[in-house]
Protein 1
Amino acid sequence: MFILKNIFMEEESGGEVQGGAGGESGAVANWRDSLSEDIRDNESLSKFTDIGALAKSYINAEQMIGKDKIVIPSTEDEWSNAYQKLGRPDSPDGYEIGKVEGLEVNDDAMGFFKGLFHQTGLNQSQAEGLFKGFAEHIRQTMESENSDFESRQAEAEAELKREFGETYDTKLKIAKRAVEEFGGDDFSNFLEESEFGNHPAMIKFLAKIGELNDEDNSIDGDGNPGLSPDSIKAEIAQVMGSTVYQERNAVGHDAAVKKVQELYNRLYASG
């Protein structure tokens, strides 16, 4: 009896219950029906399933109002437009790049830099800062290289003077003439650009080549190229080994002592 009663009750009220449920679902699904006709079919609203989703989106949008925003470009034209808005000059000539003290930059090089700055979208401040930083680095590098070159040159000169002694100037002349006679301009330029022209081994080699072609030492003009340290030492040993030098009462002893002293002075003077 209880079961039959429930069945009769469901049959009598079933349409209303089902209709109610269906009406509620339809209301949720068609929440935009309550909007005015001019906006209810807007595609921007189609992504919201209910009013709650729309409300959340509105809150997020309101929080973004007033904040700085950047839309990342996706095409070359968009990037170019963005660069212009960020301060890039209309053309490479629009950059004003000042000179860096101690560094000369020719017009071709400056044109290259300006073109590169414009291509990469730099504004005036960025371009000037980048150029000055790069130029200062180059200037310091050149100063350091010049200092190193002068140091190497001084070391080479000291080494050659120790070995050549009084013949230093003469041997340099002989080496230079060997370059001119046997090497020519190409070899001379090579020695200068590679810095081999300052290397002691190269100078000694060239001097030897020159000496083979100048046995009478005519390059010195007076035929007196001086003595090398080894030659001076040999002469000192010869004088000091003589009886005249060793015996105080010997005739010419004082002259021999004086000569040894002069030879030592020449040896020390040659480094």
Note: The chain has a mean pLDDT of 78.
Protein 2
Amino acid sequence: MSDPIVQAKGLHKSFTYQKRSKGLRSWLKADYATIEAVKKIDLTINPGETVAFVGPNGAGKSTTIKMLSGILAPTGGHIRVCGLDPLKQRRELSYKIGCVFGQRSQLLPNLPLRDSLELFGKMYDLDQATIDKRIEELSDIFALHSTIEQPVRQLSLGQRMRGEIAASLMHKPTIVFLDEPTIGLDVVAKRSLRETLNNLNKSEGTTIFLTSHDTGDIEALAERTIVIDHGTIIVDESTDHLRKKFLNKKHLQIDFATKPEKHALADVEIRIQGNTLNATIDMTKHDINEVLHALLKLGIVEDIQIQEESLEEVILSIYESTGKKDESAQ
């Protein structure tokens, strides 16, 4: 079995800052406070995995990525990424990892995208023949042929983001860290980028570690989901298992030929608008077949859709369940 790509043990990061005080005391003695951004987390990621690292703002996601990539020094704990210490061997590690931060561009805005890709190739000591071949490969994977000669500033956000990720992959890294890769993209651009990343993982075996607030990214890209809150990992499950474990509701929409008749179903949340009935079914209280059988009697059905909870709802359920556990422990 291959060694883990990422191995972190007791990873910890705290920040100390000076508190603002009023009055004479602020002139005589400074007061300091400490924030624990990451609290001794353990993390193992194996080659070829696609992992989503999710949580609310301030949970410690970006801080963790910055420590794993060598940008930030941990306050404590042990890290190995691709067999290297990110802080002590940052230069060597840079040849094995790729990083993309969704709100920060690493491309040259006034020059053609090709120039940025060539620059990245030179930075990683690739010869020109290898650079040309890699640009061609990435242009195929990311559909860059029509835009690669355009100045980066003229590209759409979706085109630029594909270019950003392509640049981070010029040296064929073992793992790529993606921090909010689809932020600001429209629906079509998001779908295109997700499909591209999935193809990349399958064709080149690149390990993908991403943070995102978009549950669509997680569902489409990640086989495994790690949920972090207040600097602590609270769940680490396969994405499918996570959905099944916390999936308690199904959403049902029925379109009738005419406005449906009144219903007499207790404990089922039902909303009727025109000829459409929407119901939310708690699977811990009801059998969906029985509820569906009763609702289909309300009129002539033209269409029906059954949807599971979104991953966003699932993650909210996780926060609520862990919050209840915390309260009961006090």
Note: DSSP finds eleven helices and 13 strands in the chain.
Protein 3
Amino acid sequence: MNVIYGSLAGLVVAAPIAAAGIQTGGGGEPPSLTASQTSRVILRDDFNSGEWGEGWRGEWVQDRNLRVYCEDGRLRVKGISGDPVPVCADHHEFRFTGLVSKQSADRDVVLACKMQVLTPLPNGKTRVRYLVHLCGAQPDYFFDTGMAHEPDGREGWLHVPIAHGFPFSHDHDYPYVSFEEIPFGGEHTVVVEHDAETKLTRGYVVDGGGWHPLGEYRAYLATTQVELKVDVPYDGVEVDVAYNDVRIYARPQNAPVRFVVIRPPFPGFPFADLDVVFRDESGATIAEGKTDRDGEAALLFPSDRLYPMGGEAEFSLNGESIGLARIESHGVDGLYPGDIWKIDVPERFRVEGEGYPMGM
């Protein structure tokens, strides 16, 4: 079996975000504040560079007729099945081809990925599964989430597990969510959420109609990794799927976004007792809090939203706004649960003195 194993990946990525310089606040508008991001996001890739990034270990090819490549800012798996690499002939009939990520020690995670199947599903006694796969690698317990056609004619959206060795997901008639409920065509976002404490994993499809639940199962994951792949153990099946904007990030329930507000001069003094309100791009209030004696406000963001998120964080002192920090979001870039955002404030809030103000 062509299994790829690797070492744990680093988890903290520094990602400075460009922001407008400090304004004087003409016309009564609050000045713009400079914000810089240190992101806890575990994996993110929009495939816009024409190749996959450093978070991946590489291709997993069990059918040499299927190509795995980047095109027009998406990951594609495409071809006509029929040239298998021998795998586990005495076990289960499967044939995986796709892209495998590096492992992460983070387990309390959300995996989200856009997926679009670009060819009709086959008919008759054959199988094709288009999968966003979350697994623990060792032991190889996992969740297959996506859409499929089965040899017995069943088809639709699925979220199926393997845990404690059995049952293998191909062996049992797990329920499908029909294409009448979640349409086949177009681009959808597949979401897999794993709760490290309860071991429960939930699958969803997110589209313009909202969050559609696919199921909930318990399985232990020692680590996490993602595989974007197809399972086509029959010859002559046309395959064409595009994946995009894949990201794995911390579950919002246990990963507050931390805003750290610093007053000049260098190296900076903490700005305590500021009210912090974050509004999304529609202007709706998402989270709010107050900076502590270290200048930090830890805000829990909602769990029923997809990340990254864009919007504005407003900082106020005694009811007066001292400025806005704008956070842009596009593709896989923006605010994530667990982020640290450092905020610099205008010179008029300078603190005269030397050293860190101990005892405040």
Note: Residues 43-250 form a domain with the Jelly Rolls fold (CATH 2.60.120.200).
Protein 4
Amino acid sequence: MINRIWLFIIFLICPSIGKAQQNFYDTDFTLSHKSFVFTIPIEVEHNQIYLTMEFQGQPLRFKLDTGASQGVIYDDVPLNGLTEKGYIKSKDANGQIRQVTTVELPTFKIGQLSVSNYKVQKMRRQVMRKGEDGIIGFALFHKGITAKIDIRNQQLTLTDKKDYFKQEKGEILKYQLHHHVPYIKISPFEDVEEEVLFDTGSALPYAINEQSFTQLTRRHPTISKQVEGTTYGSRIIGHFGAEHPKLITLLCLKRLMWGRFAYKDVHCTTVQGGSHVGAPLLQYAALIINPFRRRLILQPYDNQMSCMVSNRQPDIVIVENDGQAMIGMVLNNSQAWADGFRFGQVIEQVNNKPITFAQFLRFKWVKDTKYRFTITLPQGARETIQALWPFQYNN
């Protein structure tokens, strides 16, 4: 049996809604160069893509998130020169809506390119992830910048030349813009096509909306053969908190088709937010974003028409609850379950020391060491669990 723990922290900044959205979303930012081509380094951590942007000589690290319309600057980042532009309603990955501040960033540089008057939302971060200062969204490309994301070589090529990648081949999917972010049609099941958000801000290869899944299984009963099981809880953390607890369906897809290219043995779950594919798919192929023809071109690294993903479901997921670490989901055949962890338990202390959610994520766990967890149950009672953490892989 394989014991494991993943902390799935997924940020999907959906575009804003209503009249305020139209007032504040724009691509009126300016670029310092025309007819440019350059390549910059990127970093990949926890299946997320990061690039460094320079603000008045100050380097800040932004996540590349095609699921965000414009982007985000976190309110704890010490950046001077922000100009408030008003308020806007924003919806997160779980459909929760809040009013947030829109700000204009000071001029910044990406490689040799200077970008002025770029607007983002200013938000409180739900998770203190070291080395992440903000998010750069799809507006950067929608402005008219073609990009090639190459995770294997850890580089990003940007150009405003329409035909720069004209001769490059790959599996082409046309995208449609909904609320300023790209949606494509993929095939998660045989004879089934689904429109999903292409979201590099997600650390999941694929997630399917629970209502969409229910409707599909009614029309295609054979889909139920790819169900691994069910559990109860919440898995996704959006900008405004964790999703509401519900029944989660665990799936093992035989194949997930991007055009003719097959991702095989893909483990995924239902979610309360929208269906999407995420950055992990780019481990197996480079990707060209062409905003002029609204195309996403997948270029498999090994020139094959399929790859084995064989990712694993997490034994246990931690979410935030009023600043504390809460058990969001536990598989009932896992070591975490056997040790006594259950959905809804709040971890108040580790080795008799109080701990917050942010501290829990940053805690320096020692392999093969048992820890004493002081747990508060949903009913308010307390208990202690002795367990290894994090759960180790036994290959």
Note: Residues 1-23 have pLDDT under 50 and may be disordered.
